[in-house]
Design goal:
alpha/beta, Alkaline Phosphatase, subunit A, 6-stranded antiparallel beta sheet, 14 helices
Length: 401
Amino acid sequence: MDSLELIRGLSRPSPTKIVLLVIDGLGGLPHPKTGKTELETANTPNLDQLAAKSICGLIDPIGPGITPGSTPGHLALFGYDPIKFNMGRGVIEATGIDFDLKPGDIAARGNFCTVDEAGLITDRRAGRISTEKCAELCQLLDGLVLDGVKLFVLPVREHRFVIVFRGKGLAPEASDSDPQQLGVTPKAVSALNPQADLMSVVANKFIAQARTVLAKHHPANMLLLRGFSQRPHLPTMPEVYKLKPAAIACYPMYRGLAKSVGMQVLETGAAITDEMATLKKNYTNYDFFFLHIKGTDSAGEDGDFERKVKLIKEADKALPSLTSLKPEVIVVTGDHSTPAMLKGHSWHPLPIVIYSEWCRPDRVGEFSESACILGGLGRVPATQIMPLAMANALKLAKFGA
């Protein structure tokens, strides 16, 4: 019996409420001048106060040394083994913008990027062009038919777009064109098994045409594709946990992921204060809330240490709006580390606090990497967080006689 089946058998409905606050890319590395991470640098009195009456620790989204993408990082927090349930980024992005995926459709996530005269990538995000500019470029590429396969190219947000391939004989086992590093050329898409031969051929033909079309649109003069995927079947959170779950997230990818696991996605504004207002407005209607803060991850990817610190402070300032609702369980953590010092995701474990009336508080007095490593949870897999949250909400029955 796997862990989800075990929890499915033990879970039971109750009026208690759980709020999972995910500060995207939360974990960091010490700044060379101060020896403190972004979280340790930020003044976070509210998070520290919460930590002081909670049980704390560190979590690994995948495993020690493994750098997670955003999708597996979140799936692990929702209690799904991210290796077993390996969802492609493309499907999640398409779901997040409410694209009607048909059986057999293949979706991939795209970035507009910048390349120099030699074709080397100088910026994987094209300077984070506006969403309006992204939509304009997508219109130039949308509607192609290549080898009998119709292509839909749709804007997501800023430099991000989604491409959907619709036709016969397609399979998602194709490699990414995004090398996820600078100073190299985009990769050719290759078939990872013979069934994906047509997929790789069509993708490479699209990339070749896009190179010509985008040549005069600097900084978005090229594109990168990753996460070729089809819609998977996942056991939903209502099925497994007997919850009525809701998601509060402004970025399409996270909204799509939430939908895929059976959450009701609530409309919200982009600011942290908007998301807290959405939580308050809908608080009586659900018993589980996934509340997502994105900006910290973007700041880390941009290598902007101070901006990430500022956004952590903003999250801390907004926390009383959450705690004033008095949910029985509050979990605060991240989906992965995005140290500004590395300008990307990393393998470092994440700090976590779990508060409830029935938790066993430890002696941790602040919310930081160096403090939480001494907490009562120790260092645990992220997949264990949902069972702990459910237990602390008194939503799990006893196992065995």
